[in-house]
Amino acid sequence: MKKIGLILIALSILSLGVSVVSADVPNVTSLGVEVATDGRTLSITVRHSSPSNIHYISKLEVKVGDNVEVVDLDPQSTTSFTEEVSIATSGRVEVRAYCTLHGWSSWASLGETPS
């Protein structure tokens, strides 16, 4: 009985140093396509907290139909930013963002781009 009490006290003390940590994976919050006579432009808005010169969105992966394009980015200074990408083909649009510390976001999809 005394042993169990000591174990419980030890576990209680150890649990004082434990804290919950959550990763701030980026989130693609908005996708839109603008169609003009000279082509289509995909507007991508991303939210990502606490950007710095070592913690930022370094690239976007854009899938349109069967085509995949990786867009390299410079470090951001705001938690939300919009990037515009020219797209040459039509098809289902999917985008994800890559954080230098937390990795890839989940895919965001727009559906079919207008022809």
Kindly summarize this structure in a few lines.
The protein is mostly beta strands and 115 residues long. 12% of the residues lie in helices and 49% in strands.
Walk me through what this model shows.
It is a single chain. By secondary structure, this protein is mostly beta strands. It has a single domain (23-112), classed as Immunoglobulins (Immunoglobulin-like), CATH 2.60.40. It contains one helix and eight strands. The chain has one helix spanning 2-15, and strands spanning 27-36, 39-47, 57-64, 67-72, 80-87, 92-99, 103-104, 108-112. The strands form two sheets. Strands 3, 4, 6, 7 and 8 form a five-stranded antiparallel sheet that branches. The longest helix is centred in the N-terminal third of the chain and has 14 residues, at 2-15. It is elongated and about 80 Å long. The mean pLDDT is 81.
